[in-house]
Amino acid sequence: MSAPLARRNPVAKLVAALVLTLVLLATLDPLTPALFLAVEVAALPLFGISPATLVRRGWPVLLTAAGIAVAQQLFGTGGWFASAGLALRVLAVAVPGIIVFASTDPTDLADALVQNARLPARFAIGTLAAFRLVPLLSEEWQLLTLARRARGVDAGRNPLAHARLFASLTFGLLVGAIRRGTRLATAMDARGFDSGAPRTYARRAHFGVADAALIAVAVLLAVALPAATIGLGVFQPAY
Q: Which of 91, 97, 101 is nearest to 32 (CA)?
């Protein structure tokens, strides 16, 4: 991507997202996560991500936040204040992760984890493989659905049957993912990824001043936004 923040080092983007997440876990009021969420959405163009892309990648998070808000309203305490706070916090925590992974090439991420974060190559290459295999999960889900339909397995309009079918498909998908992961781990070991020998890199991952500035801005936001809500008297700590 050519957007200015999309070109930043993947480790810097991960650290910036982690800083924001840790602060959001310390508050229960709705205003603090709302401010963080507004800043995150405003930063989308800097990462080369459109709102449509964010919604397309994050729609499960939207459904989760809505479900949490409804459950809290029906069965929890605190009323709409607590419900809105939980829902907004889920969104504000999830959006930075979506932004980071949507604007980062998996190969660049693996290189940065090994060279800049000094993580083991086995872990970094495994992370890269996981990124590459994620799109296969949706394809395999479709294949499992079509296979069940071809064998005449259909839930019809029965909601309980739909739930049983969903659980069965999820279990099948999980079994397939575990088998694929086991084969991948065996193949990585056969190619010496856990040999301990020094490795070379096809391209260098540079961590520069702009990357450090991104982390500094995240720290500044993590301090300034909660300070603003504390000044307004609405900040509610989680402990």
A: 91
- Same domain for 136 and 226, yes or no, is no
* pLDDT tens, per residue, the chain with 239 residues: 678 899 999 999 999 999 999 998 888 888 999 999 999 999 999 999 998 888 888 877 888 887 777 777 777 666 777 788 888 888 999 999 999 988 988 888 888 988 898 888 777 887 788 777 777 777 888 888 888 778 877 766 777 777 788 888 888 888 888 888 788 878 877 877 766 677 777 788 899 999 999 999 999 999 999 999 999 888 888 76
Residue in 151, 216, 159 with CA at minimum distance from that of residue 12: 216
Considering its fold, how many domains does the chain have in total? 2
Whole-prediction pTM value? 0.78
Contact 115, 205 (CB under 8 A): yes
Please tell me the chain's helix, strand, coil percentages from 3-state DSSP, rounded to the nearest 5: 75, 0, 25
- Do 185 and 71 have their domain in common? no
Helix (H, G, I), strand (E, B) or coil at 120: coil
